[in-house]
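Write out a record, focusing on structure:
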Amino acid sequence: AAGLRKGDGVGARGRAEIEALRLMCSRGLADCHALCRGLVVLPMRTERYREAGQAVLAVLQRWGLPVEKASYDDFYIDATALTSAAAAASDDTPRFEMEEVAAAEG
């Protein structure tokens, strides 16, 4: 998706200093319809996103690392342990497999 959201890492100060980001602003639905007369807004399929997010979370939690779910599809992982020499040398270093997530989604 274009634009930036909360949690994108830029922060308010970064947005204020970058002209393209400063010019972006959030708009209400009425403003969007006024600017784009043919706009069609579909309802979010929350259950689908919730299920997919839970599947991704389950895979991430198998690593045994601290995971924080910020939204349906945003996760914060403390991967510090993976960067240590001991973790890098270990044969059982967790590997993220996209196929696992796809299989869990069905």
